[in-house]
Amino acid sequence: MHTAPTGNCARFAAKPLTHAGTPAPVWLAGLNREPLPSLDVSKCPGLVVVAAHPDDETLGLGATIAQLVASGVDVQVVSVSDGSAAQPGATPSEQTRLAATRKHELRDATSILGVTAPMSLGLPDGQLADYENRLGDVLAWILDTAGTRPWCAATWRGDGHPDHEAVGRAAATACARTGATLLEYPIWMWHWAGPSDSAVPWDRARAMLLSEWSIGRKKQAARCFHSQFEPGGAGPVLPAFVLPRLFAVGEVVFL
Predict the structure, then answer these.
(1) 78-114 pLDDT, tens per residue?
(2) What is the C-alpha separation between 111 and 107, in angstroms, rounded?
(3) Going by C-beta distance under 8 Å and a sequence separation of 6 or more, which residues neighbour residue 32?
(4) Could you tell me how far CA 58 lies from the centroid of its own chain?
(5) Residue 151 in contact with residue 48, Cβ under 8 Å?
(6) CA-based, 20 to 30 A from 101: which of 29, 67, 221, 235?
């Protein structure tokens, strides 16, 4: 197994979401100049998609999920945290309500993608590094008990968000223990990094070949996350530029 660079949290923190980050045209110019090889998923026996927060699975790999399910591949979504810390300054009761809302949004979104029963582990949002060893055990158990050894896709170990990186490390540990194929998908890399950035393992990057139908499903599923993208309180949790950029760059994984 290849070891991915880790510890990009400082770079993400230095470029918060109040900053627009790397614009989509810059990414598209770089990807057009040096196109990524595509990943052949025709032999994928099944896929376990591990998301740090409810919505990561959709934002990072939603079209791939929809496409695989439509082709008859079994896909299971594991949402690790409860998502309750998305709104800074929320009271405990507000956090409880937000966790319930995000779980409901997750069910709606994954249903659109074709996954009818996401597994929500409900670990504390923002504290996943404290549960990394336990999560590795849980993911290894999920991979071990699957009928056919599935591939495992998780948030990238170098994505810049502490929860994303912790989930990526736990998934890497679980795959090393079980022999499962690991795919890592970036989300916040597209914000703080840039084309040819040395912190990104471009030699391991693969583009997913997606149909217009699957992209449409992803867009529909992303709209389910009202708590993240629609104004409320101080405003939306995720600024308006996040979704267009993710749809522009497509879906990429690191092998």
Answers:
(1) 999 999 888 777 888 988 999 999 999 999 999 999 9
(2) 6
(3) none
(4) 7
(5) yes
(6) 67
pLDDT attached to residue 235: 57
Encoding tokens for residue 60? Answer: 């990072």
Digit-coded pLDDT (tens) for 40-58: 999 999 999 999 999 999 9
- CA atoms within 13 Å, Cβ hemisphere of 241: 13
What angle do the packed helices 162-178 and 132-145 form, to 10 degrees? 40
Strand ranges across the sheet with 205-207: 119-123, 75-81, 47-51, 151-155, 182-185, 252-254, 205-207
How far apart are the two ends of the chain, measured CA to CA in Å?
9
- Residue closest to 153 by CA, chosen among 163, 141, 139, 132: 139
Helix (H) or strand (E) holding 252: strand 252-254
pLDDT in tens, 72-86: 999 999 999 999 888
Give residue for tokens 């703080």. Answer: 192
Inter-residue contact 59 to 190 (CB < 8 Å): no
What average pLDDT does range 58-72 have in this prediction? 98
> Do residues 15 and 199 make contact, with C-beta atoms less than 8 angstroms apart?
no
